Amino acid sequence: MKETYSCWCCFFWILFFAVVPATSAQEKPQAWATSDTDSVTGLIKEAMALRAAADPGQAMHSAHKALQLAIPQEDNGSMAEAMIVIALCYKDMGDYLKSKQLLYLAWPHCVKAASSSKHIMAYLYSQLGSIYGLLGDNDSSIYFLHEALGSLQHNRVQDSFFKLELLCNIGTSWLQNGELDKALYYHRKAEVLAKKLRDTLTLAIVYSNIGTVYRNQQDSVRAMHYLEASLKLYQLKRTKKVYPVQFLYYSMGTIQPTLAQAIPYYNKALAMDSHSVNAAAVYELIGKAYFDAGDYAKAEGYYKKSEELSERKRLEGHLLHIYPMLAAIYEKLKRYPQAYQYQSQFVALNDSLRTLEKNKMINQLDVKYKVAEKDRTLAENKARLYRQQQWLIAFTGGILLLASVLLGIYRGHHYKQKEQKVRMQNMEQQEKIGKLQAKMQGEEEERSRIARELHDGINVLLSATKMNYASLGKEYKGLPEAPSYGVVMGLLNEMGLELRTITYKLVPELLIQQSLPDAVETFCDLIRKSKELYIEFQSWGSFSSLPAEYCFAVYRVVQELVHNIIKHANATSVLIQLRHQDGILSLTVDDNGDGFNEKDTGIGLGLQSIRSRVESLGGQVIISSTAAEGTSVEVELQTIRPVV
User: Fold this and answer.
1) CA-based angle 493:494:497, to the nearest 5?
2) Using an 8 Å Cβ cutoff, are 170 and 143 in contact?
3) Which backbone phi and psi does 587 adopt, to 5 degrees?
4) How far apart, in whole angstroms, are the C-alpha atoms of residue 201 and residue 535?
5) Is the pLDDT of residue 578 over 90?
6) How confident is the model at residue 421 (pLDDT cuts 50, 70, 90)?
7) What is the C-alpha to C-alpha distance for residues 109 and 152, in angstroms, rounded to an integer?
8) Structural contact between residues 343 and 365, judged by C-beta atoms closer than 8 angstroms
9) 225 pLDDT tier (thresholds 50, 70, 90)
10) Are 52 and 22 in contact (CB under 8 A)?
11) In 3-state terms, what secondary structure has residue 625?
12) At what angle do helices 120-134 and 138-154 cross, to 10 degrees?
């Protein structure tokens, strides 16, 4: 029961820090906005306000607009602020990996803006610490939170609310790490500062954490004192947050000396919410208490409720605790079929339980079940079975030994066959990739040749034709006034534009002369001018050293995806994001079109072509789509090969 309590204690306080945007310092507009453009600053403040109002989608939209305005101005401070807000929106939506990725992308801009913004590095470190805590990496969380606190002190930043938030987060991380003395030290400092600032809700959090520390130190008197103090503060502020108050109730229940005294607290926790993950944990705690007290019938009822909630919400971690406990309960109640059933479910759910010892547990339950059904028959034949027991043991031992030897021989042979098969598959894959690369290289060379022919041949002739036609108009003064003269000149201009478009589609000149982002941006401009689709393009990182084959591949993927969207998706807008950092080239294309059901719809030739092109360079393509909700395509290529 203590282990379960400690686990949930840490989980809920990490969760609580993730869901209280209105009360923490990080939700308040910061004083480190560095952009001189009122529109950028206004958009960032608007994004922060929307996020505080629990609207991360709209907040992300405003932050994206601010980022687009800040990039041309090379305003590192505003770019950093906008990217951090986008990262926080991803955190609010539960996408912690994307949030971490955006924070690392914001890092270089924060460093450049640090000279004029003393807050910015501390704020970045704080958010990284929070994300690592949510991801379960406690050591990294503690490191970044301490870096944030050190940055505040080094730059002599006077922001008491931000400092209070940091102290709370550091104390919580040490508590989760099991360092109770350090956790108590930081929470005591936070308590003093929260009282000074009269921050009631943060003080309630601090009291709850201090109570948890004393609970883990087996000091139930002090633990109850601080938990009750925390509850009073929440009631005083009439908080609408269910999780922290519910957590307090069943925390109080766990430190009661008897089950009868604990049950009222558990019931209060369940009265607040009986259908969530928290309720499943409370049912499990109560069931464990009744099991320890020897009341197996009541223990069964609470564990069954926890099982029902866990299965409905697919909480496999809960079920791994619940199944063996139900098996133990039914064994105590001598209901062996149910015990066998739950132990079997436990084994099926957890592959690591396929050891000899756990299989033996299943066999023992199976034997008990058969004994219960055939008790009379076994009793009559007890003497005969006893005489045969020694022979059966010897025979079984011999069979097991022989089976072990044969199994070892078979596994060795099977492993060699499997290794040979994998080696052959790798060789076939390499050969296939080589053919694909040669084919695509030939295609690109042919495209380049055709593009040069168009540019150096037809384009030159067209330019000469336009010059001579214009000269003709000067020689014959009345000619330019003729309607057909203007029509012909317009056709020549249109031919030039069409020729330029075809040339860019074959081999974009910017892709050779400048960089991949320039070529993609030019392609997006051409699509925008056609008014078929609105495209927003964003890029991060350095592309100067990117190998040519990657540039061509990604450019072709963008072309193919945009053409697919125009042809099939009925979309009105597309977001293209391109990033190259630490040897990873990634492309994301999101549209707001019709989408499709991936299970019901096969992959078309266009997407198959994209997948073949990317896989030939050792990359991967991930397609996510839902009917009526748009489509997202992610491409990732490793541009720096590891040394083998």
Assistant:
1) 90
2) no
3) -130, 135
4) 44
5) yes
6) confident
7) 18
8) yes
9) very high
10) yes
11) strand
12) 170
C-alpha to C-alpha distance for 526 and 500, rounded to whole angstroms: 10
Tens digits of per-residue pLDDT, 3-38? 444 444 443 433 333 333 333 333 333 433 343 456
Residue 602 gets which letter from DSSP? -
On whether the CB atoms of residues 614 and 553 are closer than 8 A, the answer is yes
Could you tell me if 166 and 182 are in contact, meaning their C-beta atoms sit under 8 angstroms apart?
no
Q: What are phi and psi of 640, to 5 degrees?
A: -115, 110
Q: What is the DSSP string of 492-561?
A: HHHHHHHHHHHHHHHS-HHHHHS-HHHHHHHHHHHHHHTTS-EEEEEEEE--TT--HHHHHHHHHHHHHH
How far apart CA 592 and CA 115 sit, in angstroms, is: 40
**Phi, psi at residue 586, to the nearest 5°?**
-130, 145
Distance of CA 417 to the CA centre of its chain: 38
Task: Find out whether 565 and 599 touch, Cβ atoms under 8 Å.
Answer: no
Answer yes or no: are the C-beta atoms of 320 and 307 closer than 8 Å. no
The tokens for 526 are 């051409």
- The number of residues in the chain equals 644
d(CA 162, CA 165) in angstroms, rounded, equals 5
3-state secondary structure 561-591: HHHHHHHHHCCCEEEEEEEEECCEEEEEEEE
* CA torsion, ordered 99, 105, 111, 116, to nearest 10 deg: -70
CA–chain centroid gap for 630, Å, is 19
Element (H, E) at 621: strand 620-625
* Closest by CA position to 599, among listed 615, 623, 566: 623
Please report, rounded to a whole number, the percentage of residues in the chain having pLDDT higher than 70.
Answer: 73
Q: Which two tokens stand for residue 458?
A: 């037809």
